Amino acid sequence: MAMLLAVIAIGATEGGCSFRLGSMFDKDKGDASDVTGSIGPVARVSDDTNLTDADMALARNAASDILSRGGKDASQPWENPETGARGSVTPLATTYASEGKVCRDFLASYVRGTNEGWLQGEACQQGQGPWQIRQMKPWKRS
Fold it and tell me: How many helices (H) and strands (E) does the chain have?
């Protein structure tokens, strides 16, 4: 048993990420070159989703694409290979008129890391123009 604990202790101290302890304790000498790794900062759109602006743009594009096709019972997948986020967009019900425009609601799923959930949205179209996403926000169950 003692041998197993020694192996675990050695493995915990010898493996893993690169980190220079001196920079953590010596604030005057630490700089950006002390940090290693490949994960960059994440621009968070919402605390609820953990999606970046780029993720949201891809979901919006998928919503516009599927709404432009006008089909029933269809979904459009979306994916951001840079962040690993992915999901699909599904139009809901039928179109309705709002402020002189044709509108339709949709749901978009998302998965990013351990976060997953739904976004609710509304898109509208003026005449034969493109669908404009009016809103897309985390779906709250009531």
Answer: 3, 6
